[in-house]
Amino acid sequence: MSSSLTAVEQGRETGQKTVPGPILLLGAPGVGKGTQAKELVNLWGIPQISTGDLLRANVAQGTQLGRVAKEIMGRGELVPDSLVDEMVALRLQAKDTANGYILDGFPRTLGQAGWLDGRLAAQAQTQGGGLPVIAVSIHVDYNQLLRRITGRRNCPVCQTIYNVNGKPPKRDGFCDVEGAALVQRADDTEEVFKERMRAYVALTAPVVEHYRALGRFAEVDGDRPIGAIATGIVAAVERLRK
């Protein structure tokens, strides 16, 4: 049995009675946030809501919001918080969000956090019930993250991912399956990683402190097997929901 399945089974035993509600999953580039989001989606049957996915979907579908966003991006400008807020608001009206959802990439700023908190509080008053957002951050040491990111190599043919610092191919520089020369993505360099980390800390630190001050923040150790991290997140959610 894989550690991933163990986490889901363990989570079902300890967390089935918990209604997860809105969960903001935080983590620096490379911590495995996407992997953990999938674990939680499988466990609780709630959707993962990514602002990046929402933006791409609205643009691809040619919605009114998508057309506005496309025009803004076409000018090389950043999509404003107000437009992202509207996309999120529409997505949260879907029935699959009734028991909760995993937020990925939102709220990214303190302004977005304030907007979301206000919206959920108003919804709780008008519709009854409703849970506030809780934030769970996956923490991995900076140097360990740097090794993960800069050590990544992928096969251009089958897309298998290796890591020269942890999961190297049998033959240095070549894919075990296809025999093709492995490549490093342009954004997997130390320079790009440092810039992404600076941006992440600058944007996320105020959001973390916001939810910490409200007593709705927890941090879990991300330098463990996938299943152990998932179990830690489930325990944190249960603790914060009590």
Which regions are unreliable across 5 or more consecutive residues at pLDDT < 50?
Answer: 1-8
SSE order: HEHEHHHEHEHEEHEH
Task: Strand order, main sheet: write it out.
Answer: 2-3-1-4-7
Radius of gyration over all CA atoms, rounded: 19 Å
**Count of discrete structural domains:** 1
Estimate what percentage of residues fall within beta strands. 5-15%
Query: Helix tally?
Result: 9
Please identify the top-level CATH class: Alpha Beta
Overall, the morphology is: globular
Structural class per helix/strand content?
Answer: alpha/beta
Enter the CATH topology name: Rossmann fold
What can be said about the biggest beta sheet?
5 strands, parallel
Helix content: 40-55%
Number of strands: 7
CATH architecture: 3-Layer(aba) Sandwich
Mean pLDDT: 88
Calculate the terminal CA-CA distance, rounded to whole Å.
Answer: 31 Å
CATH superfamily: P-loop containing nucleotide triphosphate hydrolases
Task: Tell me what you see in this structure.
- There is one protein chain.
- The chain is of the alpha/beta class.
- It has one domain (3-142, 205-241): Rossmann fold, CATH 3.40.50.
- 52% of the residues lie in helices and 13% in strands.
- It contains 9 helices and 7 strands; from the N terminus they run αβαβαααβαβαββαβα.
- The protein has helices at residues 3-15, 33-44, 51-61, 64-74, 81-91, 110-127, 142-150, 190-213, 226-241; strands at 21-27, 48-50, 100-104, 134-139, 152-154, 161-163, 217-221.
- The chain has a 5-stranded parallel sheet with strand order 2-3-1-4-7, with helices on both faces. A two-stranded antiparallel sheet has the order 5-6.
- Helix 2 (33-44) crosses helix 9 (226-241).
- The radius of gyration is 19 Å and the shape is globular.
- It starts with a helix and ends with a helix.
- 29% of the residues are buried.
